[in-house]
Amino acid sequence: MHLDKIKAHPWIYFVNYFILMLSSFFISVSMGINAVNLPMTMELMGFETVIIGVILAAEIIVSFILSFFLVRFVNVLGLFWGIVISTFFRIPPLLLLPEIQEPLIWLALLMLHGVGIFLITILLQTWVYSLPTQEGKSGKMISLFGVVFSLGLALGPYFYQNAESIAIWIQQNASFFDPYLLFLKVKAPYLVSALFSIMAMIPVILAAPLVAHIEKQEVVSLIGFVKRTPGTFWAVALAGASVFGVLSFIVIYGTRNDLSIADASYLLTAFLLGSLVLEGVLGAISDYFNKRYVIVALAFVNMLIAVYLPLVIYYKIYAYMVLFIWGGITGALYSITLALLSDKTSEDEAVVTNAVYSIMDMLGGVLGVLLIAVSMQIIGIDGLPYSIMFASILYFSYALTLYKVE
User: What is the pLDDT of residues 286-306, one digit of tens each?
Assistant: First the structure.
């Protein structure tokens, strides 16, 4: 449906926003399960840290490459078909991975899975970015999207811990589907993740006629777009390095510091709950300040938290508190940078803006994951916080030269 009609009919806007949030929740639960399940599966299989890092980074690299073609992709398929097609990239790898112990095949399957995850997340982000909001209130609306996404991610470790019980219940109550649902025989965490991934498509299909239609947009120089607001886009890269780094390695970091898998997975939960609780608050507060300086302040706090993590990791309660705050900081970096871009660009540039946003996010994620993997292999388990601290120092130093004090 055209954006003008959505503006004219508040109930259509509500339906779009509801579908968007529901799909975002389902796909983020799947991603939250994978954030624990995939690295721990590789760790238990005996993959070296660098190999794990390369495999996880490959999924992000695929997204990075696809970002350059996002505008063309949306122009051809639009939001609806893009989200539907993405499902067929996400599900097969989740059904095949449990039986695979060869790193190269893991690499190939996670690259395929990465295509699907990139497509649905970037299209959902483009969708929320393009919906009309009251002037100056983009921080609240976009932060709500981030909160819902963070809620799903935070619940992922819970569903991972209870995957066996969920899988048994599904198999007991869906026996009449057995001839058709062969994936019910898949190992529990992969099964539950796949089901949530499928559910992300269902609300979009049910409300297909009301899904927003994005007008075709001109293909422009993406590098030139970065130069328009370099400080904002490099902040996105910092957020990508921090979030992808934590999602990829915090559970391994916890287990190597003598935490059980359950306790280590709740480090990730604490991180994501922090994003859930604090991201919206910080996003709303940013509407009353210069967002550029809020971003710089968050980068500084991001650095401080990375410094303190090795000191508190042996004390679970304090570690959970630090991860909680850290999640709020990184989540706010995402939503406030997106809100700042929303304030500075027009609706006609929604897809282009999100393409560049995604490129910088994935660039930061790739560099962050690889740096952390190499650091953990060379200097030990504290390579995780040291790498994030290094990235934060780089951005903070750059921002001090970029922005004049007003």
Answer: 767 777 778 888 888 889 988
